[in-house]
Amino acid sequence: MLRHVLKSQQFDRALLLELFRETKVFAEKLESSHGKEELRRICPHRLLFTIFYEPSTRTRASFESAAHYLGMNCFSTENARVSSSAFKDEPLENSIENLCGYRPDVIVLRYHEEGGAERARAISTVPIINAGDGPGQHPTQSLLDIYSMWKDLHGEVDGITALIGGDLRNGRVARSDVYLLSKFKGIRFKFVSPNELRMKDDVLAHLREHDVPYSETENLEEVLPEADVVYWTRIQRERMTEEELARFAPLKDRFVLGERHLPLMKKNAIILHPQPIAGEIEPRVKLDPRARWKSQSANGLPSRMVLLTWVMNRFPHFH
Amino acid sequence: MLRHVLKSQQFDRALLLELFRETKVFAEKLESSHGKEELRRICPHRLLFTIFYEPSTRTRASFESAAHYLGMNCFSTENARVSSSAFKDEPLENSIENLCGYRPDVIVLRYHEEGGAERARAISTVPIINAGDGPGQHPTQSLLDIYSMWKDLHGEVDGITALIGGDLRNGRVARSDVYLLSKFKGIRFKFVSPNELRMKDDVLAHLREHDVPYSETENLEEVLPEADVVYWTRIQRERMTEEELARFAPLKDRFVLGERHLPLMKKNAIILHPQPIAGEIEPRVKLDPRARWKSQSANGLPSRMVLLTWVMNRFPHFH
Amino acid sequence: MLRHVLKSQQFDRALLLELFRETKVFAEKLESSHGKEELRRICPHRLLFTIFYEPSTRTRASFESAAHYLGMNCFSTENARVSSSAFKDEPLENSIENLCGYRPDVIVLRYHEEGGAERARAISTVPIINAGDGPGQHPTQSLLDIYSMWKDLHGEVDGITALIGGDLRNGRVARSDVYLLSKFKGIRFKFVSPNELRMKDDVLAHLREHDVPYSETENLEEVLPEADVVYWTRIQRERMTEEELARFAPLKDRFVLGERHLPLMKKNAIILHPQPIAGEIEPRVKLDPRARWKSQSANGLPSRMVLLTWVMNRFPHFH
Hints:
The structure is a homotrimer.
Chain A (H helix, E strand, L loop, with lengths): L12 H17 L3 H8 L6 E6 L5 H12 L3 E5 L2 H4 L8 H9 L5 E6 L4 H8 L4 E6 L5 H14 L8 E5 L6 H10 L6 E5 L8 H9 L4 E4 L2 H4 L5 E4 L9 H7 L21 E3 L20 H6 L1 H12 L8
Parallel strand pairs in A: 1-2, 1-3, 3-4, 5-6, 5-8, 6-7, 8-9
Helix pairs in contact in A: 1-7, 1-13, 3-13, 5-6, 7-8, 7-13
């Protein structure tokens, strides 16, 4: 039973596989009018509030659309830091408590500080879905990421080598993905990042504790040939110190995934990215059939539909 | 017949009691699926626009939710000063006139200047509900406030002693509440505020004219034992002059409602607050059963549902 | 077959007349409950996304309302530059591509740079409606403008003399209107603007090429008596250089349409304005029966309803 979706650690392999199978069914239903009609009957008259304290394109729109295709209603606050009582320094807890009084069936929350979703859950009378809590986690992104791997690798996540690259220190999605992927069997991680932006110790300790092999390098070419999944992310230069930036300057091209890398990759590998992309992938890479971030993003719709039905205990009848 | 909701003075005792009885019925309907189904049939296919020129958490969300539970549709502008033609200095009247042309059934308006709702009404072809007009009024808040008193005092508002405390000079809700409460019989007011932030003369003149007894003090302890309702509000320090602030500094703790005050209060008294709360109530006070601002806020949903049905002349059939 | 609505040049006279006749039918249906019920059945369960990178009052609200009256669902981003990944410099194309993945049936886009709608169309899998692209075009405004002329001139657009005045250099609507109007037969244009703000050469070249007569003047009084339509717009002083402003200062009253002009106008002429109005029309002019910008704005609802049905190929059965 899933009531709130707060962090990747809540999920185990069995639950993930169930979620993925269900997501695939939902995705198929979305392809036909008859299927859409079935989906619309799952949550009639239910109400979703999305409250965003930080910008979003994909996450908010996909939840709104998920609500629509489930027959729910949805109201959103797109810029809560300015247009809500947060502007008058109301604590998050008070806002959530009051919103619950207006009887939404679910609240999707993006907050600008780590722990926001957990603080909301502590007071909420309705399910809370974490849509990103500052540098903390972004579990619904991770769920669609791993679903995208599962789907594009034909159900075979066990045993893969996952290359996770870019800014591993600051990227909440990269962190959440590692936690989730490590639930599968025989996963090997290849972390590629500037030394300054290496994966933090909590994640590495978690891997060591569970005997999940990993390596760390600044050299993409060295590990690219082994990867079944290349998960690439943006270097968040704005979070580096001046010294870090000075050392990083001559290296920066190493962290742009380019056409020159394509021949080094496995034929059946896939390239994913949580987006937005800001130059860290050369445009022509997108033409390669292994580039999958477009369908990855679209997977957010069925994946979030399933999550909504689960937290509301609205299991559809078609399985 | 209520067409627009602009200010507290529109309501008399009989209308208030009718509104409260209806609100209670709506609140009960919201507790069952059958009741919700009845509510949804009241305003099918009706359209609400909410237009907010100032931040809001409770008011906007509760109107959106009210629309949802009445079977209506709702579109909101959460930050009209930036995202509407207000940005190009369009007068409010022109915006409202044009919005009316798109055939909403009701407009809920929060404006940053006193008189905004009245200016909108003057041009509007559809009902206008004032959701706060700068330092003017906030009548739908007052209606839920007095409803909360009526409900928690078991229908007995006549004859109560109401302690209204905090910033009485600048608080639009405190002002609206006094106008509304004074419609009942035998009300006594105890105003507690720094001298600089006393209730303004228009309100006091109104009370004298209608022979409603009131007293003013800086000393909460002195009047607390007599209160049936303690309505507490935030000191808006940002609106005080430097001299006022200098005199106020040593007094400020007097205007924090704390645990030490609880033993002084009547056993059956209730504590209300319009929120957001920013330190003027000690957190532990919330654990006292007399603290009611959480249910007070939730009362906004059925109360606003009733107002919407009234201004649209959509009286439900279940009474 | 209309798939995207990007610019005025897409429309020819026959298509415009069909659109206008349909718009009139929709407008009539909106007047009765039975008609509204018919309209609601046109696009059930369809989904509209509106994405606004610049402020809007009329355009966004009328599309939201159009969706409502067609039985569609609609989600809006009112301030995408701040609340979407545009804030993290995501290119428009990537945002649109991802939004398409969430299966809207139409996207209505206002962008702050010329060519935004065309860039969106190039990547979109669903119809794009241009709701203004910076200084480029605003075709849905032009369609409702010309519809307003057609309706208020009783179907007789051929042969009219159209006076277009104000800031013709910077006004995207004035430009779009000229392109559209020139599709009709025997149109004569009278352009009235400060010399600095004359209609740009691309438009004038287009008129010369199609043998559409036009004149240019700074003197409103000179051409006003001939006009069947007076289309008045705001002088965008913020876009003038200091030298331009210095020369313009003594002339500025000439570009305020005032009561003194009314006796010069034809009895059956009409005055239109795209709004917001910021002083360039004296308030009392609105009392003249020839002032039509209020109904012009309201025409946006049925006009945009028809466009939505056309781009989705949802032709209603009632004609």
